[in-house]
Amino acid sequence: MNRPEDQKIHCSVKSCQYNDQVKYCTLDSIQIGPNGSHAKSKEETDCLSFEVETQ
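The structure corresponding to this sequence follows.
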């Protein structure tokens, strides 16, 4: 991934197939959505681009 630091997507979800197993998402862009009808905190949001890593 050869993007400038300010354009990288940080991710700590190691079980996602798009996580580089260090600290970045390998997708060019991601989709974020609410976890429920009206998000009021970061805990109430989800990465809709998540795909479970298959071995």
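Residues 31 and 49 are 6 Å apart (CA to CA).
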